[in-house]
Predict the 3D structure of the following.
Amino acid sequence: MKIELLAPAGDLEKLKIAVLYGADAVYLGGRHFGLRAGAGNFTEEDLADGVRFAHEHGVRVYVTVNIFAHNRDLEGLPDYLDMLCRLEVDAVIVSDPGVNRMIRELYPALPVHLSTQANTTNWAAARFWEELGVRRIVLARELTLLEIREIREQVALELEIFIHGTMCISYSGRCLLSSYLTGRDANRGDCAQSCRWKYALVEEKRPGEYFPIEEDDRGSYILGSKDLCLIEHIPALAGAGVSSFKIEGRMKSVNYVAGVVKAYREAIDAYISDPENYRFNPTWLEEISKVSHRDYTTGFLFGRPGPAGQHYAGEIYRRSHIFAGLVRGYESDSGMAVIEQRNRFAVGDEVEIMVPRGESFRQKITRIINKEGAAVDAAPHPQQIVRIPVDKPVPAYSIMRV
Ligand code: SF4
């Protein structure tokens, strides 16, 4: 049985984290032609490094070329595709039929994955794209399990779905809210996430007087979706014929990518190794609850989500742990881990260290040594490099949390 875990790579560091924590494939955007303009997109040099690193670890790389192209966008496209082929990326993610056609004509060996932005919601559309040479479809998020299964029965191409992450309140990412309010166009990868802002009602002759919009005693939640989380439904999705499970979040932190990829890796491995006796392990859900997230929903998988899929007013984001530092190295002679600080931690704290593979462990901080070699009580400055003694060796890219 083949199930691919596909993780976001917002930049080169996140790519390495995704690879080391267990992704089978990563997706990323170059500087041009891809959605998510603010995701720290890859330069050609970064892209070359990223592809090399991923391939050395047996991990595939997919590059987004999924803007809704205007005529002027097509001019530089052949050169860009040429570069992607030279770097031997494994596929491109496309939403525009014209872009797909150009790729099929100019680079027929380059696999095309159809983006979720193309809104494939039925088997006839899937068949249409299959006939045009598309290798894989990232299905629209608005499908039920039954609909996914029906599409699977009608086409041979690969099916991918979003299994985890933030949901757009609009239809499969098609939205003008941000473009209208800020000029930042979601369909060119520059969404300001305007659906998460706080809205009020203003009468035209009373500027500055804001009346709250209250749908019920919890306030207003018309524009706020909960986050998608399908980790408990891996057998059902595999049974429906989905071969790639995609985690959303090229804008998320390295802590987020590490924790979510690790939990899904363990769940998928457990399922693949023994599907008959697979049991969901609640610690996987605990793991993904340690990173910043909204309440979780299963989206449309079991029918229309209704109010239960919306986020109510009040505290929106939650997490059980704070990202304290990223392990940059380990000095075996002194037994010290080299930590790049991300949030304050101090002598006396008990932290959790999550390693890319294997069990996390708890570690009491007994000493902190700064860059100058002096013992300090705390590591208060972001990105500061410090050393702490650890009970066991820790590989680079381990995550320290309090
Ligand atoms: S404003 Fe919200 S719904 Fe619209 S594209 Fe951005 S995240 Fe999606």
